């Protein structure tokens, strides 16, 4: 039985798992995370967000935000909790250098806005920046890393001044997106992971990146085995993490197609977000919680 496993590490997705559609964290979920930390159980968010944006919903509770380990960029980056005022880079997956140059050329030839999602460890800790070649006026940019306009971004990338990042975005506009995405997949095939979440742009990452990569790196760091790990999520991109964990639980608000994929992957089903599914799942699988 899953309940017989000793849980030493809990990892969770954010949007749709602990956050509602307005990126709000419920008081019950906050208390649950605090209790896990008080019990000495390591806790990590593991999402598609940048590291900085992963912290934004917790800005009012810095004691919690600083204690969390963080996986970001859909598994491309993993960082430690805050120690001595900084986070350490534990794991990163970057686009291959030659592929990165080809993608930069591709965006330049079509005069698309290129956004390089930079994530670097420096002397002061982790530095994140979204460097873009064209203006982002009118674009949906959310929060998170600072957006920095660099008119010579293509040249800086091709010269090697900017090294291959974990992710880039090419802003095609919604009308051209599907055509460009099809052309990219035809040209690079399985050599890239190309998708979209914001309608006007394509996101490109290394093809082998998924949340299980970050989960493994985080588990090693906290001294837990995957068998001692509980992972909770609601989306298709959470399934690799849920399969890798000793205990993987899909939220009840997951879309039907995701639920069908989970049925054959030894993934448990939990309550939905609107019924405090995250807290209910922790109470079910963490001993004496």
Keywords for this entry:
six-stranded mixed β-sheet; alpha/beta; globular; single chain; 10 helices; 289 residues
Could you describe the 3D structure shown?
The structure is a single chain. This protein is an alpha/beta fold and 289 residues long. It has helices at residues 27-38, 51-55, 62-65, 97-109, 153-158, 174-188, 211-222, 239-244, 256-263, 277-285, and strands at 9-12, 42-46, 69-72, 77-79, 89-92, 113-122, 125-132, 146-149, 167-171, 193-195, 201-205, 229-233, 247-250, 268-269. A hairpin with a 4-residue loop joins strand 3 and strand 4 (77-79). It starts with 8 loop residues before the first strand and ends with a helix.
Distance N to C terminus: 17 Å
**How many β-strand runs?**
14
Count of individual helical segments: 10
Instruction: Label the structural class.
Output: alpha/beta
The main β sheet shows up as: 8 strands, mixed
User: What gyration radius follows from the Cα positions, in whole Å?
Assistant: 19 Å
β-strand amount: 15-25%
Tell me, briefly, the overall form: globular
- H/E order of the elements? EHEHHEEEHEEEHEHEEHEHEHEH
| Mean pLDDT, all residues | 92
What is the share of helical residues?
A: 25-40%
Strand order of the largest sheet: 5-4-3-2-1-12-13-14
pLDDT below 50 for ≥5 consecutive residues: which ranges? Answer: none
């Amino acid at each position: 039985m899953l309940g017989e496993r000793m849980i030493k590490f809990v990892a969770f997705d954010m949007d749709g798992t602990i956050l509602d559609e307005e990126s709000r964290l419920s008081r019950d979920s906050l208390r649950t995370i605090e209790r896990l930390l008080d019990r000495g159980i390591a806790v990590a968010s593991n999402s598609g967000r940048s590291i900085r944006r992963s912290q934004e919903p917790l800005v009012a509770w810095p004691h919690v935000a600083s204690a969390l380990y963080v996986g970001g960029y859909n598994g491309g980056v993993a960082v430690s909790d805050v120690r001595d005022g900084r986070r350490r880079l534990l794991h990163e997956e970057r686009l291959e250098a030659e592929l990165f140059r080809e993608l930069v050329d591709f965006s330049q030839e079509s005069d698309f806005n290129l956004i390089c999602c930079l994530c670097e460890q420096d002397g002061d800790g982790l530095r994140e920046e979204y460097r873009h070649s064209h203006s982002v006026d009118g674009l949906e940019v959310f929060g998170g890393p600072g957006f920095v306009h660099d008119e010579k971004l293509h040249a800086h990338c091709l010269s090697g001044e900017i090294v291959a990042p974990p992710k880039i975005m090419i802003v095609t506009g919604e009308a051209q997106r599907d055509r460009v995405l099809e052309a990219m997949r035809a040209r690079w095939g399985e050599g890239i992971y190309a998708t979209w979440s914001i309608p006007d742009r394509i996101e490109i990452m290394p093809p082998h990146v998924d949340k299980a990569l970050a989960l493994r790196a985080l588990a090693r760091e906290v001294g837990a085995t995957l068998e001692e790990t509980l992972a909770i999520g609601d989306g298709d991109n959470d399934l690799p993490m849920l399969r890798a964990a000793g205990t993987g639980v899909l939220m009840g608000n997951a879309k039907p197609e995701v639920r069908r994929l989970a049925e054959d992957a030894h993934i448990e089903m939990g309550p939905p977000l609107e019924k405090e599914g995250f807290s209910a799942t922790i109470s079910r699988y963490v001993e004496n919680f």
